[in-house]
């Protein structure tokens, strides 16, 4: 595991963007796993900047997002479909047919999850998976539980997740209660994982994830088993690491 700490948000975003852009420069047909949430916003901004400077093309890239809310209109400003368009997809040359996000409005969610796993399988392996970290240790929307699920599945969001994500909605009652998420099996199958964590409010959970026991109670702790994990932290998030 390679942990790097940054004293500015700008440097952290640049470093993360360099890893992602570098991956595409090395393998133009790269398969990228993408994340949403507050953490990657600045990273996507930097990637768009690099694209505008002509440093990289996403023409041959395929992307798979980690998750999407269930029963949120695709064009709702807080759907992850909208998020990806406004922060990244609308600004780069990634063809629409090569962007995958689970469909939380599918009439049969189980079929949708199977379809999503098949699409990932068909693309080969995810070369680089970008991850954020939930306050309760979730990755994607794999919430703490006595058991974790390997493939894409429907999940009931934890109370803490609803509270954390309420900041994006008018009130907590408007936060969708369920989501579709890639499973931990799929996440761990990625050739390389880039975990990005920011803020003092995540100092405890990142310590548990990286230096605590490997447990399904902290889904991110499973990342300790991954052979090619890069962790980028700001100094606030790194504050409690040994
Ligand atoms: N499903 C997403 C995760 O993929 C994300 O990593 C996490 C942290 O989000 P943030 O970066 O806003 O703290 O929670 C969200 O709800």
Automatic annotation (TrEMBL):
Q: Where is the active site?
A: 67 (proton acceptor), 136 (for ring-opening step), 138 (proton acceptor), 143 (for ring-opening step)
The reaction(s) annotated as catalysed by this protein in its Swiss-Prot or TrEMBL entry are: alpha-D-glucosamine 6-phosphate + H2O = beta-D-fructose 6-phosphate + NH4(+)
InterPro entries in the cross-refs: Glc/Gal-6P_isomerase, Glucosamine6P_isomerase, Glucosamine6P_isomerase_CS, NagB/RpiA_transferase-like
Where would I find the Glucosamine/galactosamine-6-phosphate isomerase domain in this sequence?
Answer: 12-226
Q: Name one Pfam family in it.
A: Glucosamine_iso
Single Gene Ontology BP term? glucosamine catabolic process
Supply the alphabetized keyword list: Carbohydrate metabolism, Hydrolase
Please tell me whether the keyword Hydrolase is annotated for this protein: yes
Q: EC number(s)?
A: 3.5.99.6
Name any one GO molecular function: identical protein binding
Transmembrane region positions? none
Spell out the SUPFAM superfamilies in the cross-references.
NagB/RpiA/CoA transferase-like
**Quick one: which pathway?**
Amino-sugar metabolism; N-acetylneuraminate degradation; D-fructose 6-phosphate from N-acetylneuraminate: step 5/5
Gene Ontology cellular-component terms for this entry are: cytoplasm
Record's function text: Catalyzes the reversible isomerization-deamination of glucosamine 6-phosphate (GlcN6P) to form fructose 6-phosphate (Fru6P) and ammonium ion.
Indicate the family of this protein.
Belongs to the glucosamine/galactosamine-6-phosphate isomerase family. NagB subfamily.
Report what the protein is called.
Glucosamine-6-phosphate deaminase
Which organism is the protein's source?
Answer: Cohnella terricola
């Amino acid at each position: 595991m390679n942990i790097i700490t940054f004293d500015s948000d700008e440097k952290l975003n640049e470093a993360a963007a360099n890893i992602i852009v570098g991956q595409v420069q090395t393998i133009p047909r790269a398969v990228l796993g993408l994340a949403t949430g507050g953490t990657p916003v600045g990273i996507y901004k930097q990637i768009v900047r690099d694209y505008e400077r002509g440093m990289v093309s996403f023409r041959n890239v395929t992307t798979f997002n980690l998750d999407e809310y269930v029963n949120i209109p695709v064009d709702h400003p807080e759907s992850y479909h909208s998020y990806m368009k406004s922060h990244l997809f609308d600004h780069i040359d990634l063809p629409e047919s090569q962007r995958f996000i689970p469909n939380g409005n599918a009439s049969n969610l189980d079929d949708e999850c199977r379809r999503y796993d098949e699409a990932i399988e068909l693309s080969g392996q995810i070369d680089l998976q970008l991850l954020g970290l939930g306050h309760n240790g979730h990755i994607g929307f794999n919430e703490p539980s006595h058991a974790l699920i390997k493939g894409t599945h429907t999940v009931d969001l934890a109370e803490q997740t609803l509270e954390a994500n309420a900041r994006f909605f008018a009130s907590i009652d408007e936060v969708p209660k369920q989501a579709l998420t890639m499973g931990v099996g799929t996440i761990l199958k990625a050739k390389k994982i880039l975990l990005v964590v920011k803020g003092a409010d995540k100092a405890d959970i990142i310590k548990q994830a990286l230096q605590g026991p490997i447990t399904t109670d902290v889904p991110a702790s499973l990342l300790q088993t991954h052979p090619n994990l890069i962790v980028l932290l700001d100094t606030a998030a790194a504050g409690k690491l040994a």
